[in-house]
Amino acid sequence: MEPLTKPRLRNRFTEALGIEYPVVQGGMMWVGRAELAAAVSEAGGLGMITALTQPTPADLAAEIARARTLTDKPFGVNLTILPSISPPPYDEYRQVIVDSGVKIVETAGSSPEPHMPTFAAAGIKVIHKCTSVRHALRAEKLGVTAVSIDGFECAGHPGEDDVPGLVLIPAAADALSIPFIASGGFADGRGLAAALTLGADGVNMGTRFMCTTESPISQTVKERIVAASELDTNLIFRSLRNTARVAKNSISDQVVEILSAGGQFPDVQPLVAGARGRKVFENGDLEAGIWSVGLVQGLIRDIPDAGELVRRIVVEAQTVLTERLRLFS
């Protein structure tokens, strides 16, 4: 295909992070590897390597080095901090990020506060992922460079407030003074145009980047996302107040049924084991376990190169905004 024209798109987010376009590939477990992150960054967006996808801190160092052989443009590392009986060595992963010279980190899960002094001392810019305005304001006070605000449409954990992006994004714009990007429900240029119009500085996309050629997940999973509609997700763990949006399959149906009948986490723990979800992505067995996907799968209709996708989204956004502005002439 002919190369797409590259419009110029600059704002406080792109300037703060040193990137061309405010299109971010969110850090996703088992998905955020060097090839995908580098392809997004090389196209002018911001790619993310997922730290905990790598089994050890040493493996993370090797993955960062591998990404550097694929692009000389900025990319980041996602560090998701979650409560656990046997937590991974977060401090060691954090030190690898510092020692590697990566200058952008996406934090998610728990508060980034314990990690901020180390990141700040190393000149690392932190984007913290939030599901509410109140959490975003707390992150702002901690000194993060930007926040990523997740609407109820998102894959994974949307929080417990159930506020969709159409309300959450302008609410965040009214409250925050730092740059922020919108997450949940974004797949194309219309979404980027909408996010910018609502007051965000860009978009963060997970499910959409799962469906690219550089994404390391099984082709079967990608094709399932393309074929699925916005109705093909389940919300699990609602009764446990740890809501997660995952693909609708026999396993997630069972989890919903058990918990709706009064079951507790131990009753579903064997069904939701992370190792089972990993088999979905690696082997393409769509019924092996639960796996995260967003409502936006209903808008995904192809599996392009990640770089082509970034460029296409920016061109589409420019076209949409230009055409809509003509309505006022």
UniProtKB/TrEMBL annotation:
Keyword terms: Flavoprotein, FMN, Monooxygenase, Oxidoreductase
SUPFAM superfamilies per the UniProt record, alphabetical: Inosine monophosphate dehydrogenase (IMPDH)
Keyword Flavoprotein carried by entry: yes
InterPro entries found in the cross-reference section: Aldolase_TIM, NMO
Domain of life: Bacteria
Gene3D superfamilies: Aldolase class I
Database matches in Pfam families: NMO
GO molecular function terms listed in the Swiss-Prot or TrEMBL record: nitronate monooxygenase activity
Database matches in PANTHER family: 2-NITROPROPANE DIOXYGENASE, 2-NITROPROPANE DIOXYGENASE-LIKE PROTEIN
Name this protein carries in UniProt: Nitronate monooxygenase
Source organism per UniProt: Psychromicrobium lacuslunae
Lineage, highest ranks first: Bacteria, Bacillati, Actinomycetota, Actinomycetes, Micrococcales
